[in-house]
Design a protein that fits this description.
This protein is mainly α. The protein is 73% helix and 0% strand. It has 2 domains: 83 residues; 72 residues. The chain is built from 6 helices and no strands. 11% of the residues are buried.
Length: 155
């Protein structure tokens, strides 16, 4: 049914799915204020509009679930940084990279024959460097805690 709607009608459906206000959706889609006032609510009684709005609502729900996933990762990342948990922080960075579409196969030379398409840096090498820094921090903190404990034992 969506194909039966013209561009402006689809925009109306998209804005209605976003704002759930038919008058506002019609105006944002480019309809005149009088048309929006007189017809927008009537359109929503027609099956072709209902199906289109429902399709956009599903798309909207999927988009918001991705955004919520990233926000949740941000919250956990903040906690990991506060607790200086390098392993968890690295896992969060990897999860974000995957969520945004970065994976090791996207950076294979064989799959990217055109030189301009190659990334300017190797994301996974950079992540590995960061992980090594965090591991060193973890190790130095553990060794300093052990030395503090052994100093307390001798004193």
């Amino acid at each position: 049914m969506i194909e039966k709607l013209n561009k402006q009608q689809r925009e109306f459906c998209w804005y209605y799915a976003e704002y759930e206000n038919a008058h506002l959706a019609a105006i944002k889609a480019g309809y005149a204020k009088t048309t929006a006032r007189n017809y927008s609510y009537k359109w929503l009684k027609q099956s072709k509009y209902i199906e289109c709005v429902n399709a956009f609502k599903v798309e909207k729900d999927n988009r918001y679930s991705f955004e919520k996933y990233i926000k949740d990762l941000d919250k956990v990342q903040k906690i990991a940084e506060e607790n200086e948990n390098a392993a968890l922080l690295l896992k969060i960075i990897e999860a974000k990279a995957k969520a945004y579409g970065f994976n090791s196969s996207a950076f294979d030379d064989e799959k990217m024959p055109v030189e301009e398409n190659k990334p300017k840096f190797d994301l996974f090498k950079e992540l590995e460097k960061k992980a090594n820094v965090f591991k060193k921090l973890d190790q130095s903190k553990k060794s300093s805690k052990k030395s503090n404990l052994s100093a307390d034992d001798t004193g």
